[in-house]
Amino acid sequence: MSAQGQTVKDITTLMQVGEDYVRDVIRAFNERGFDALGPKGSGGRPRTISDEVREHICLIARTSPADWRITTFSTWSLSKLAEHLVEQKVTVAISRETLRRILRAGRVSWKTTTTWKASTDPDFIAKMHRILALYDTPPAEGRVICVDEFGPLNLRPRKGKAWGPVRRPRRLRATCNRHHGVMHVLAALDLATGKLHYRIRPRKRWQELLDLLKALRDRWPGQKLYVVLDNFSPHKHAKVRAWAADNDIELVFLPTYGSWPNWIEAEFAALRYFALSGTDHRRHDEQNAVIAAYVRWRNTHAKPKTNFAPDSPIRSWTEYPAKAA
């Protein structure tokens, strides 16, 4: 209103505020811009817990009870952590809500423990760079294929996520029975097209793998195939190696305990999430049909696979890290 040329008196009449308030607002805006229009603190009670104590609380929260020689429990709850802080004279009695807010402000959150299987392969870096080189610059005369097994697939209710009414989760039956045995998916990811080729078999021996390799060989005659796969014993069977060598297929093995650079692992995660999560199939042909439908849909939308982990620290590794970061 002031920018439109209206006087302080006009603004006061229209906005039903005092003249001093209007002048203060205009003056503050001219000095600080839009920052002057933000909400103003009302003061309130001063903090009773200093920034140093808050930082100390966050440091203790990141420890485990075992670090303090506490053997009666293995993890902190908010109430147990609050009691421990009082015992250690870090602070006086503190409520769980105050403690929760302090941890949240200190970017300490409740996390699920994950596992890390360290590779014992002395040639880890060389093998990883070899695979990254195939991903980044596939040989002009050949084709890079990632192969792995997915499963075992048994018939059971599978947890999943879906949209639904608040506080009314979708229910699946609970059962401990595992009828009709298991099946296994043997799959191959073609990086040139991004398409997934697979078969479902009751076992995953070297015979099933060799059948898959023969099907891949027939699909792309005349091209050398670079097959990336892990160190599962059927993959290294003498008959598999011999047949591959005789049919212009190079088996490129991943580092020991290092299957995560296999690009097909990401496809298996998507298959599990979109095709199997939240399902409860009673027959294998039912479940196999769902997997087939998903793969058909996926392959119609497939694109060449490029840019594998372009910003990942693995590309700058010169030695294998001793533990997970």
Keywords:
325 residues, alpha/beta, Nucleotidyltransferase, domain 5, 3 domains, elongated, Transpos_IS630-like
Description:
There is one protein chain. The protein is an alpha/beta fold and 325 residues long. The chain has ten helices and five strands; from the N terminus they run ααααααβββαβαβαα. The protein has helices at residues 8-15, 19-32, 51-61, 78-87, 96-105, 124-136, 206-219, 238-246, 264-276, 284-300, and strands at residues 142-153, 183-190, 196-201, 224-229, 249-253. Helix 7 packs parallel to helix 8 and helix 9 (264-276) crosses helix 10.
Give the topology, please.
Layout: H1 8-15, H2 19-32, H3 51-61, H4 78-87, H5 96-105, H6 124-136, E1 142-153, E2 183-190, E3 196-201, H7 206-219, E4 224-229, H8 238-246, E5 249-253, H9 264-276, H10 284-300
Parallel strand pairs: 1-4, 4-5
Antiparallel strand pairs: 1-2, 2-3
Helix pairs in contact: 7-8, 9-10
Distance between the termini: 56 Å
Structural category: alpha/beta
Q: Order of strands across the biggest sheet?
A: 3-2-1-4-5
CATH superfamily of the largest domain: Ribonuclease H-like superfamily/Ribonuclease H
Summarize the structure.
It contains 10 helices and 5 strands.
